[in-house]
Amino acid sequence: MGNTYLHSLNDDHLAADAVRSLARLRERAFELMTETLRSWPHPPAHAAVFGSAARREEAADSDIDVPLVPTSDAEEWSRQQAVSRFIDTISKATGNDVRVLELTEGELRDPANEALRHELQKDAIVLLGRRSRLEAMSA
Questions:
Q1: E strands of 22-124, at which residues?
Q2: Phi, psi dihedrals of residue 17, rounded to the nearest 5°
């Protein structure tokens, strides 16, 4: 296995809070995404992160893939504005491009999207909605 080193955080160090913040960066990014989506007048029925960001395989230049299933009562123009603000907010906060994929439940169930459904079922991090509902759409 090689050499192993164990380090502990010196709580009295000036950088201790910064280290804690950096350690929570990924979790905080997902929290910000969820908070931003919930603030919409008509939040999506389902939202998730998938791809390299969900699998912890992202690189500095990786994008963040976010599929959204809008509610039927969301007005087109209002939803487009909200999606644009979401992309801008999360891109600025993370430094990564955000790729939003908007799909209706019917489009997600379409046989042409089988690979996407498989990937969502395998490693999606659910931001809004229930995983069980997402899995039901994938069945």
A1: 46-49, 64-69, 98-102
A2: -65, -40
Q: Which two tokens stand for residue 59?
A: 């690189």
Pick one of 3.30.460.10, 1.20.58.100, 3.30.70.1230, 3.40.50.620 as the CATH number of 25-138: 3.30.460.10
Section 65-83 average pLDDT: 89
Residue-wise pLDDT for 57-69, tens only, equals: 888 888 999 999 9
Tokens of 60: 């500095």
CB atoms inside a 10 Å sphere around CB 98: 21
Question: What are the extents of the domains in the chain?
Answer: 25-138
pLDDT, tens digit, 9 for 90 and up, residues 32-42: 999 999 999 99
